[in-house]
């Protein structure tokens, strides 16, 4: 797939975005033939509607795309993308109706509407092309689309073809493309230096590892940590089948940080980037870690295991401890960590946690601007006691079933003690039903917001 705009000099049909309450006004300025065609077609300007306008010889000379009402657009991200599939395979230039402040969002949505996951079946097909609207940074939008496509491809690939080794291969390919350095810790070195990553992954024949990518030599330092649980059976606390069905996406945090890293490197941001991915498969075998085991983390904190299905925070904890040892200017962790987050905000919002008020404000504003919605959640300190079991320093699965996303975030924060700025994202990384620019399947959640917040957060 090529996530690129058509050349500026391409032969392109003019495309008019028409709101439902603006259709009559638009038609008033058109010849009788156009008014008759539009009225006969039943086009009403609703989001998702599209109509080609024929010339005298019958060939299309322009097109309309429904842009709905203001109320409808508040409920629909990437409203223009809903019409792309109905425009056929032509090339278009937006001639009217696009609000200036929405140009980048709608242009990105158009490119993402062309995404297809075709590794196992199907074909890319023909997607209508767009000449980049005036006033946007077309190259940046293309980079964002390619980064999102990488994330989606990684999440959509089943665990049979996306285990720890394949995740490492994807990171190595990215490092090669952008001349980044990469190291991978595995085997005895992993067991000694990252005992909780090793414990979670040791039951699988697919060896666990820690992937460590570095890029950039000047500027502020940013470390991204992504949960790379390539499949999660739940371990000895085995998930029921209904809960295991989507567990190929449990490496969605890793996929999101790799997509974000791609965007950062392709844009050439002046910073020092580090990406840490604990890559494991949480399996069942005779040497699986057990409920009530006590693990000693890289940081030295002991953790009582009260549920082997709360493994994501364990592998992240060791990776966060390593990140914290270097005290970067900012650490961001991303993980498909808790079902509690989905209960709290559903699949469409990415909850995030931070103690840093300016960072929180920057992230929230950037999420709105980038059509990458976030919702801040609290590091609620009165719940700290819930993750302190008494027999060990920490409990990986507090009893009671309440505030699960918050207690997981509090658990992770215990491993970031030297770095003053930290944000954690508890994402879903999955689109459960098709929506404009977002087919059912793997999804980036948070990277565009983080990218948009970096200039303010790091002084770029």
Helix content: 25-40%
CATH class of the largest domain reads Alpha Beta
Counting DSSP H or I runs of 4 or more residues, the number of helices is 16
At the fold tier of CATH, the topology name of the largest domain is: Aminopeptidase
Work out the oligomeric state of the chains in this entry: single chain
In total, how many domains does the architecture comprise? 2
- Principal-axis shape equals elongated
Residue-averaged pLDDT: 97
Largest beta sheet, briefly? 9 strands, mixed
Task: Provide a descriptive summary of the structure in words.
The chain has helices spanning 23-28, 32-41, 70-74, 81-84, 103-112, 138-156, 164-177, 187-193, 195-201, 241-244, 252-267, 312-325, 339-345, 357-369, 404-413, 447-458, and strands at 13-19, 50-54, 60-68, 91-96, 129-130, 181-186, 209-215, 221-226, 228-232, 272-282, 294-296, 302-304, 330-335, 350-354, 374-377, 394-395, 422-426, 430-431, 441-442. With 460 residues, the protein is an alpha/beta fold. It has 2 domains: 13-114, Leucine Aminopeptidase, subunit E, domain 1; 142-458, 3-Layer(aba) Sandwich (Aminopeptidase). The strands form 4 sheets. Strands 6, 7, 8, 9, 10, 13, 14, 15 and 17 form a 9-stranded mixed β-sheet that branches. Strand 11 (294-296) and strand 12 (302-304) form a beta hairpin. The model has no long low-confidence stretch (mean pLDDT 97).
């Amino acid at each position: 797939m090529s996530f690129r705009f058509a050349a500026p000099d391409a032969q392109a049909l003019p495309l008019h975005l028409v709101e439902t309450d603006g259709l009559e006004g638009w038609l008033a300025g058109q010849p009788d033939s156009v008014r008759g065609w539009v009225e006969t077609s039943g086009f009403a300007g609703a989001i998702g509607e599209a109509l080609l306008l024929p010339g005298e010889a019958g060939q299309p000379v322009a097109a309309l795309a429904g842009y709905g009402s203001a109320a409808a657009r508040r409920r629909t991200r990437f409203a223009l993308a809903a019409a792309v599939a109905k425009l056929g395979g032509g090339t278009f230039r937006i001639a009217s109706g696009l609000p200036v402040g929405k140009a980048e969002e709608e242009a990105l949505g158009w490119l993402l509407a062309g995404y297809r996951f075709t590794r196992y079946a199907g074909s890319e097909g023909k997607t209508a092309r767009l000449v980049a609207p005036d006033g946007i940074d077309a190259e940046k939008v293309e980079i964002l689309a390619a980064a999102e496509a990488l994330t989606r491809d990684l999440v959509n690939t089943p665990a049979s073809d996306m285990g720890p080794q394949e995740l490492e291969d994807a990171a190595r390919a990215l490092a090669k493309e952008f001349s980044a350095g990469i190291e991978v810790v595995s085997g005895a070195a992993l067991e000694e230096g990252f005992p909780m990553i090793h414990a979670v992954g040791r039951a699988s024949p697919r060896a666990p590892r820690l992937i460590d990518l570095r890029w950039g030599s000047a500027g502020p330092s940013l470390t991204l940590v992504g949960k790379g649980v390539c499949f999660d059976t739940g371990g000895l606390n085995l998930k029921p089948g209904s809960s295991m069905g989507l567990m190929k996406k449990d490496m969605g945090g890793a996929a999101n940080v790799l997509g974000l890293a791609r965007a950062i490197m392709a844009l050439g941001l002046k910073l020092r980037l580090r990406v840490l991915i604990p890559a494991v498969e949480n399996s069942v075998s005779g040497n699986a870690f057990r409920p009530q085991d006590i693990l000693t983390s890289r940081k030295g904190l002991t953790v009582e295991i009260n549920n082997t299905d709360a493994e994501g925070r364990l592998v992240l904890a060791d990776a966060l401890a390593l990140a914290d040892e270097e005290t970067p200017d900012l650490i961001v962790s991303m993980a498909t960590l808790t079902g509690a987050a989905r209960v709290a905000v559903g699949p469409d919002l990415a909850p995030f946690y931070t103690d840093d008020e300016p960072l929180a404000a920057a992230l929230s504003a950037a999420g709105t601007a980038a059509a990458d919605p976030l919702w801040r959640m609290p590091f609620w300190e009165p719940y700290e006691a819930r993750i302190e079991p008494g027999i060990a320093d920490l409990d990986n699965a507090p009893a009671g079933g309440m505030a699960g996303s918050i207690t997981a975030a509090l658990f992770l924060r215990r491993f970031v003690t030297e770095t003053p700025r930290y944000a954690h994202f508890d994402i879903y990384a999955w689109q459960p039903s098709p929506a404009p620019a977002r087919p059912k399947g793997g999804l980036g959640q948070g990277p565009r917001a983080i990218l948009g917040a970096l200039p303010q957060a790091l002084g770029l």
